[in-house]
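Re: weekly structure request thread

Next one in the queue (263 aa):
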Amino acid sequence: MYSFELKKADSVAKAAALLAESGGKPLAGGQSLVAAMKMRLAQPGTLVDLSGIAELRGIRREGDNVVIGAMTRHAEVAASKDVQGAITALAALAEGIGDRQVRNMGTLGGALANNDPAACYPAAVLGLGATVHTNKRKIAADDFFKGMYETALADGELITAVSFPVPKKAAYMKFVQPASRFALVGVFVAQTTGGVRVAVTGAAASVFRAKPLEDALAKSFTADAAKAVRMSAAGLNNDLHGSPEYRAHLISVMAARAVTAAG
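Done, posted below.
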């Protein structure tokens, strides 16, 4: 690790001001950023600690939405009765992230801002058609994820909360990379008021919607319909863990399992 300056903020406004003044990076749970700093993949001169900002934490029900603060820990989402009762799939997803240490330190906002290609939360946000709230605006899920580790967030813009619409049915299934517990392929399937949404993580450079699966499941929301879809391998990841063709096959398999789990 190298030297850097740590500044603490007690409000969103203060954090934004410190970031603008220093040109530094926000520190949420640190599960991604600190590791990147240790490997010299990120070298910010200043970190702005968000852990003391009470307004960024908490879970509440607002009509047909579950609103989760950006600094809410994965373990808190998994244990929340509001989340378990309204969006069981989201609670289960949070319970399956990393290990106990990661779940007790990592945050929703940090995971989304980092947008790791194999992270689980992006699949839930995109699969449910959630809305990302920042200190400046609201961003629809379809507009938020731009590419590998890239989002629509501007410099100094902070995620404050995420609104998750309560679906009719939903489930998330992932094929776990055992060393990291990230998704080799993860698929979030949801029946929403606007139709069927299927989001895939781990298979490509960034989370994406699987339109062939959405079209098939809109006609027949069954595991057999999902299994029958042959996803294209074009643009999918190719590494020591799996070929593009293997990941394409896994997308349909995980989607079928998610449909079965959704009921």
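The two ends are 48 Å apart (CA to CA). The first strand starts at residue 5 and ends at 8.
Next request, please.
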